[in-house]
């Protein structure tokens, strides 16, 4: 959905208009998350965007349309969410998909046989599976590299490289890739940069403003934020690309349904508040884990001795609630996973509930062992998504679970 970036001063119908009286560009992110699309529903005054649970729309006459024909193509609730996403991510257009993988599937269809993509080696396992199992056999080629290393990045680019796809910070090793540097390198040869921004959300990082062409989100995580809904997004600012992507969305059919669009819109309203708390809890837990005798190493972008700390601070405004760590002893893994009780052993992130994940057996099973190990995903790696609970309660829970590890020796 294209958003109105012109001067928004028009009070179109004597103050009844739900449009902003000022340009959305003048509003801070905290305000846009609450009032992202319109201030209210012009037809009824409803403050919450209505759920348009309709598959089809009546045409006024032959050759006429209300602008809505069939909900796979456009749905009013989804349209409001797309407008909100475009605004908070700093793009002109956003497309909402049924899941993050739905969004990534649409992205990869921009390319064809013979095209080469450079991709972060340390990334969401589902993205690896999609590219490697389903697109490589069709003649696509991929180089999986540590994109946080500029030398490796430069060496991986080929004349037929059409895109660079990065996750930064990466999942689960929290490596940080220089977005502006990547954009410069791939633009020089006419390709595009896509950034999966799921880990930081638009609240902490806006890759389009750093030179990226497409931002990808699993809205399932921080955006919706309550572990109750799945969604995915592509955000960008190119009219030509919009035409192609809309056609892919319409043809493939992984469009987000009205109820999940509404849940995601509702989640986004508290994004700013939640991200502040996720970050605070993430920092407290990262520091606590770093001091724990059973923990070998903690990966957290907010540590001053993180290898890319200054880069992180220059391109992001925060660190979210994501913390990974190596245990010293792999035998502690099953004990810890069954002993946490407030923190839930589950395979997701970014929600109000704190979750503990074992990437080797959960999010990263699709990645071949050699590649997984070279990225650092070994049998002692745990990933923690700090929720918004009281940090003291979370530490008490972790502490009690670690005590169980000690007992099994
Ligand atoms: C979860 C996730 C995805 C996939 O999103 P779904 O909504 O589960 O399809 C993609 N990228 C990252 C970084 C993720 O965490």
What would your notes on this structure say?
With about 400 residues, the chain is of the alpha/beta class. It has two domains: about 260 residues, Type I PLP-dependent aspartate aminotransferase-like (Major domain) (Aspartate Aminotransferase, domain 2); about 140 residues, Aspartate Aminotransferase, domain 1. It is built from 14 helices and twelve strands. The strands form two sheets. Strands 1-7-6-5-4-2-3 form a seven-stranded mixed sheet, sandwiched between helices. It has a five-stranded mixed sheet with strand order 8-9-12-11-10, with helices on one face. The protein is globular. The N and C termini lie far apart (about 60 Å). About 5% of the residues have low confidence. Bound molecules: pyridoxal-5'-phosphate. Pyridoxal-5'-phosphate binds next to helix 3 and helix 4.
In short:
36% of the residues lie in helices and 14% in strands.
Bound molecules: pyridoxal-5'-phosphate
Looking at CATH, which topology of the largest domain would you report?
A: Aspartate Aminotransferase, domain 2
How many helical elements?
Answer: 14
Give the CATH superfamily of the largest domain. Type I PLP-dependent aspartate aminotransferase-like (Major domain)
Q: What strand order characterises the main sheet?
A: 1-7-6-5-4-2-3
Radius of gyration from CA coordinates: 22 Å
Q: Globular, elongated, flat, extended or rod-shaped: what is the shape?
A: globular
Secondary structure: helix percent? 25-40%
Q: How large is the share of residues in beta strands? A: 5-15%
Q: Can you tell me the CATH architecture of the largest domain? A: 3-Layer(aba) Sandwich
What low-confidence regions span 5 or more consecutive residues with pLDDT below 50?
A: 4-15
What profile does the largest beta sheet have? 7 strands, mixed
């Amino acid at each position: 959905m294209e958003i109105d970036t012109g001067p928004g001063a028009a009070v179109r119908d004597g103050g009844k208009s739900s449009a902003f009286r000022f340009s959305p560009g003048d509003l801070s992110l905290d305000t846009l998350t609450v009032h992202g699309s319109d201030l209210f529903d012009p037809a009824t005054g409803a403050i919450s965007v209505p759920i348009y649970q309709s598959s089809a729309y009546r045409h006024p006459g032959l050759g006429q349309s209300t602008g809505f024909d069939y909900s796979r193509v456009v749905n009013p609730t989804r349209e409001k969410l797309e407008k909100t996403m475009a605004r908070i991510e700093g793009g002109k257009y956003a497309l909402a998909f049924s899941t993050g993988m739905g969004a990534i599937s649409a992205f990869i269809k921009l390319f064809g046989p013979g095209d080469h993509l450079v991709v972060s080696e340390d990334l969401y396992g589902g993205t690896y599976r999609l590219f490697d199992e389903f697109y490589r056999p069709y003649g696509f080629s991929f180089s999986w590299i540590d994109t946080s290393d500029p030398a490796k990045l430069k060496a991986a680019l080929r004349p037929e490289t059409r895109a660079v796809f990065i996750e930064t910070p990466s999942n689960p090793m929290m490596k940080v890739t220089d977005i502006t540097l990547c954009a410069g390198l791939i633009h020089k040869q006419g390709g595009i940069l896509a950034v999966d921004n799921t880990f930081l959300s638009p609240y902490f990082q806006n890759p389009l403003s750093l030179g990226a062409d497409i931002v990808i989100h699993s809205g399932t995580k921080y955006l919706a934020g309550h572990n109750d809904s799945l969604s995915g997004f592509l955000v960008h600012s190119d009219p030509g690309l919009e035409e192609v992507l809309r056609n892919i969305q319409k043809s493939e059919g992984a469009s987000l349904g009205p109820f999940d669009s509404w849940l995601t819109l509702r989640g986004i309203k508290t994004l700013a508040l939640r991200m502040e708390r996720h970050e605070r809890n993430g920092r407290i837990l990262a520091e606590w884990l770093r001091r724990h005798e059973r923990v070998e190493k903690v990966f957290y972008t907010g540590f001053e001795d993180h290898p890319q700390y200054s880069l992180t601070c220059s391109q992001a405004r925060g660190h979210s609630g994501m913390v990974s760590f190596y245990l010293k002893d792999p035998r502690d893994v099953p004990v810890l996973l069954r002993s946490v009780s407030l923190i839930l052993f589950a395979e997701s992130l970014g929600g109000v509930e704190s979750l503990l994940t074992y990437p080797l057996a959960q999010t990263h099973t699709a990645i071949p062992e050699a590649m997984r190990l070279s990225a650092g995903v070994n049998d002692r790696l745990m990933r923690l998504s700090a929720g918004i609970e009281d940090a003291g309660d979370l530490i008490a829970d972790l502490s009690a679970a670690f005590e169980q590890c000690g007992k099994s020796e």
